[in-house]
Multi-copper oxidase (Mycena alexandri), 538 residues
Amino acid sequence: PQTRIYRWTVSSVSVPGTNGQRIVVNGRYPGPIIEANVDDRIMVYLTNGLSDGNGTSIHWHGLPQPNTPFYDGPAGTSQCPIPPGATLLYNFTLGGWTGTTFWHGHTDMQHTDGLYGAIVVHGPDDLVSPHYDSDHALVVSDIYLEPVDELLGPYLTETSPDGSPEPVPDWAEINGRGAGAHNEGKYFEVDVQPGTTTRLRLINAGSIAPFRVSIDGHVLTIIEADGAPVEPTRVRDLVMQVAQRYSVLVTRAEHDSTEAFWIRAVMVDKGFGYKKCDSPAISPPLIFHHVSPNITLETRAILRYTSSDENTSTTRLPLPTTTPGPPPGDADWYKLPVFDEWALRPPAAVKYPPPAGPALTLPVAFSVRQTQDRYWRSYINDTSWNVLPLPEAALLEDIAHVNEGRLGVAVWPGDQLIAAVAHGQTVDFVITNEDTNDHPFHLHAYSPWLLGVGDGLYDPATAKLNTVNPLWRDTFTVPGSSWIAVRILADNAGYWTFHCHIAWHLITGGLFQIAIPPADGVPPVIPEDIKEQCRMWL
Ligand code: C2O
């Protein structure tokens, strides 16, 4: 294993040609990629260079943080925000995790303003099983023109009776390119050798919009979902909710020297209160409404097969002229199954079944609704999370005693909904979505096994749960008006957040925590600089 050291400064820049701002790392958006091998140590010296007096923090989405729960990142639960001018060293191992993920801001809504970047962790089997020749990360994101603070106020106070009023993204980008006025129609380009197989690591780093991703003239073969290997699954396209990731293999048998194809990411409206687009030209009508002249329904990148000498040439190669559709001569294209994230399975050869019951079942009900004074809030079991000024960084020292007298789901001081479980307990969460829209849920530091999904309310007598070969992943869709059941083995100690990853629902309270004590009863030692930074806010 190696130690990989990064020095990052968070700051904000204005976006040329707009009144928007981006929160960037070392001046770049999206921020730097972390690329590492399994079991490496990651050290990020994160300096808060914001000039607006706000704190900052970063979450390493999906990484397990064994013995380092205080570096997980959510301000108000596992650390205090890093004060302006201060630096925090995030110092953690990858704990055996491999695959595709991303880091993102976890203070206020800095994530929505652009504070994110890719993480790629290679395992010993990479390139081999299944085989591929090259590997590229594509960070797909919805983009808001307005600074998020200017959108949040109207969202919180919207009184429209006809549906929830989450702000509509203005456009979308792939690796910071692809649609916006400010990037002058430049597209991110993946250049590969003709006749080779390419692994594309797709990351939805956005705030609300699911993306339907496809590549003209190609079948996508899904091999990874959020770090979990997937039995290779051929699809025409896939839908990626915010914070989900997929690796797909793409290849073409025949090439006429240089050929270029559009990679397309289309924002899909699964009903987050967006107005439907009623243009007859757009089909299916699951697309965002144009609310500004700059809005873009689809963003693109380029997949180009090119020999290496063209590859290094400085001349601009022509844009693709392709249209969506099957590879030439592929009669089976139309017979491929419609993508369904709940139908994905681990490879048959991978044995990683969930721990058998009996499990402690914790029911969780999620809803988005207006308070009596008509503010929009998200609720979990009728509580709506508020950021504590001084978080569980203090409580962490208390975690060894977490199960003394308060096992189960309860509202703790400060209106914090916390599920306290014993170390080593098998826990099933049954999440009921009382909203008619889909919500992508994320549990920090775990990749729960996805046992089942169904319409309406969960009925233990009739629910079919897969306890044989379910997929495990850290971000999963809870479909509208449905239930899901997921299982963890509570063997990773910490206070971990479990929340809807739609930025507007996280900021308005759609979060609860799981408190898991250490095996040996000895709490993790909180680093002094975290405690010191908490005191700086007092
Ligand atoms: Cu990627 Cu708490 O989130």
The mean pLDDT is 86. The domain at 1-124 is CATH 2.60.40.420 (Immunoglobulin-like).
